[in-house]
User: What shape does this take?
Amino acid sequence: MKRTVAILGGGVIGGGWAARFALMGWNVRVFDPGAGAEAAVRAMLERARAALPALYDVALPDEGRLTFHDTISAAVAGAEWIQESAPERLALKRKLYQQVQAVCDPAAIIGSSTSGFTPSELQGCATRPEQIIVAHPFNPVYLLPLVELVGSQKTDPALLDRATDLMTGIGMNPLKIRKEMPAHVADRFLEAVWREALWLVRDGVATTQEIDDAIRMGFGLRWGQMGLFETYRLAGGPAGMKHFIAQFGPALDWPWTKLMDVPELTEDLIDKIAAQSDAQSGHMSIAELESLRDGNLTAMMRSLKARGVAVGKILKDHEKTIEPEVPDLMAPMVTLDRQVPVDWVDGNGHMNESRYVQAMSEASDRFLAWIGCTPDYIATRGSWFTVENHVRYLAEVMIGDRLTATTQVLEAKGKKLKLFYRIECNGTLAATVEQLLIHVSMATRRAEAPPEDMAALTQAIAEAHACHGVPDAAGATGRT
Ligand SMILES: NC(=O)c1ccc[n+]([C@@H]2O[C@H](COP(=O)([O-])OP(=O)(O)OC[C@H]3O[C@@H](n4cnc5c(N)ncnc54)[C@H](O)[C@@H]3O)[C@@H](O)[C@H]2O)c1
Assistant: This one.
């Protein structure tokens, strides 16, 4: 049965939460008194559909139902998680919690997206303060996994554990903050960088574009994969962190920052920033910039995923929890079900020819794992190497399209395994691939018969698949 979340406030952040939960298979009930909120949340979900599933190499759960409600009680009914993303005003949030707590399940968790308020401030006049925690995400919530979870003295650690599990389940990376503090952890960094940037623009040292370049061409790239301390450890050379501090520690006394001061936001300064920002980015609409951002983020996150580090590790770990179960192998089976990511496209604006083979290769890896060729087996014993592929390209495939592959075993004899794939795009046959594999010993890296149990299984599958006939396009590989 689908789980239910209530989203209170469907703006930039609430809409992002709604999209992530829905794409992770939750039913989503939204309450937002603002005119136009429903259209905005639906538009956000549409954008998220093109981005979040593309981070995964498996299909996400079936999308949950997104509904909009005129009353708080209708929205929170049956919800096990209630995410408040109303405007950053304490009195408004506190009033909302009183209304929510009068009708919600006392066992539900109420998370607040607040950027700055502490849980104690939020819990101020609540009926059940222990039910409310901070669950602070980052925009776009449907792509970025960080969520800061903060409780107060009144928060039961078991509730924070439950929140951690639930957030992990929808692909988030929960960071439990040890002590409550205004702006939690991550926004304190952003605040520091923001203040410094305002000074630099005000004093004419750099424009908005130059400041953005200073970030994205340099330290922003370092931060995205190693953070601050690991990066500085490297800056200290082989002598590490102590040497780094010895070298740059004295700079703390030099005028390297104006952080203790805040520039006055005069009309002049605001006009200067707005004009520079228009000159920098005014040629693109917000929707175009959002789509540029989402494409860039998915491409960067996918490259870290291939390496299994930083945000890529979170994606890999989450993906393992939504891997498909082993199907009936005795009939041709679905071995791939995924969305086409942005980095699979080429200059023709469609999926590059090599990616058809990549899709087949992912399908092949899954089938081989199902017959026992697991990472353990490969590490200790043997594997199947491809020696020939015959691909027929039959239809164009675009970014965001859903690809499925069905695998049929044509032959399993001795060291040889012949597989046939039908790759469909949104239900239309887009390619067929015939693949010839040879079993090898990983000790000698030479051809060798598979172990008896694997050979018996592949032979039984080939015999069972034979009644489905030989596809017309088959017969192109392994003729010699
Ligand atoms: N924008 C960001 O980058 C960001 C990042 C992290 C956290 N946050 C936090 O998320 C929260 C929401 O910020 P946002 O940027 O989405 O704001 P927003 O202005 O985009 O959206 C707020 C939404 O709340 C609705 N609303 C107003 N009163 C309401 C009520 N009583 N009940 C339910 N909904 C109500 C509004 O109609 C609006 O759609 C804030 O607490 C903010 O600090 C924002």
About this structure: Residues 62 and 377 are 32 Å apart (CA to CA). The chain is about 40% helix and 20% strand. Residues 8-14, 31-34, 37, 85-88, 92, 96, 113-115, 136-137, 139 surround nicotinamide-adenine-dinucleotide (CB under 6 Å). The mean pLDDT is 95.
